Amino acid sequence: MYYTIRHITRFRYSAPINESMMEVRIQPRSEGNQRCLDFRLYTSPRTHITTYRGEFGNRVHYFDIPNSHSQLTITAESQVDVNAPPPLPEELSEQAWDELDALTASGEYWDNLMPSHFANPSELLYKLADELDVQRRADPLTILRELNSAIYETFDYSPKTTRVDSPIDEALRLRQGVCQDYAHIMITLARHLHIPCRYVSGYLYQQGRSQERASNDAMHAWVEAYLPELGWVGFDPTNNTLVDERHVRVAVGRDYADVPPTRGVYRGKAESELAVTVRLAPSHAALTEELPLEPTWIPSPYEGDERDQTQLHALPQQQ
Questions:
Q1: What's the pLDDT at 104?
Q2: 155 vs 215: CA distance, rounded Å
Q3: Measured between alpha carbons, how far is 221 from 180 in angstroms, rounded to an integer?
Q4: pLDDT tens track for 281-310
Q5: Are 135 and 195 in contact (CB under 8 A)?
Q6: 316, 276 in Cβ contact below 8 A?
Q7: Which three-class secondary structure state does DSSP give residue 60?
Q8: Which CATH entry fits the domain spanning 96-258: 3.30.420.240, 3.40.50.620, 3.10.620.30, 1.20.140.10?
């Protein structure tokens, strides 16, 4: 499946700021069943953009705007080819747990087994594990399928219930959240079983499936678990599906803290607001307007003060 993607991020400030420095993680990955055929990044005000291969193999773009400005727009355009992943078996062998332990004994998957910033176990997490009977039995693939379904059924999809920096306890207490919360909870439970698991940031083509829990104008998130004989396998607990050719992978990490679409600082005595629009369509279809006439602005959780101090940009939550 060929897709064209336009991802536009706008920041506006309550007063002109002196400088913006930004990292952007929006370029789709090229690996496995996916190829990024073309990627272009533009900014307004215009500036020189550099790129490097960051942690976990993610492509990172970096720029600095040293001049005074009151708005910043980042436009990313991609063309991607995604093929259906190989079909999975119904289950793995009885020896799969032993094979998994042998694979992880070397420490190669340490990052994907240990607690991380947003995938950190808590008392509420352990209570959920008891409630869902999360323990080693059957085989790892069967358990992950069950866990994918159980999280989908236990939590209500509710945008704006949690924040981009919310710990998993907030979603666990409310039994509500967005894809970012679903992914963090599943990652933490899988690691509890000593299954290597990582966070994936990307896009989901809904193909007119209105019943799916995702937003057409935001990035999506899911998880990948490493299994014997299969390698990394994708699960989408927000929609109770396996990852398929409708999922476009952008970045992977231990959790959301490793893969925010934008991360940066600015200098100035100002507050910031953020608006994001994503348009994804099969390549034979035309993309719609770049931005709505009245973008939805989200206040930054970080406020300016009376000093000329560096402030963090807001990070858009994945839904």
A1: 95
A2: 17
A3: 6
A4: 998 755 544 444 456 667 754 333 333 445
A5: no
A6: yes
A7: strand
A8: 3.10.620.30
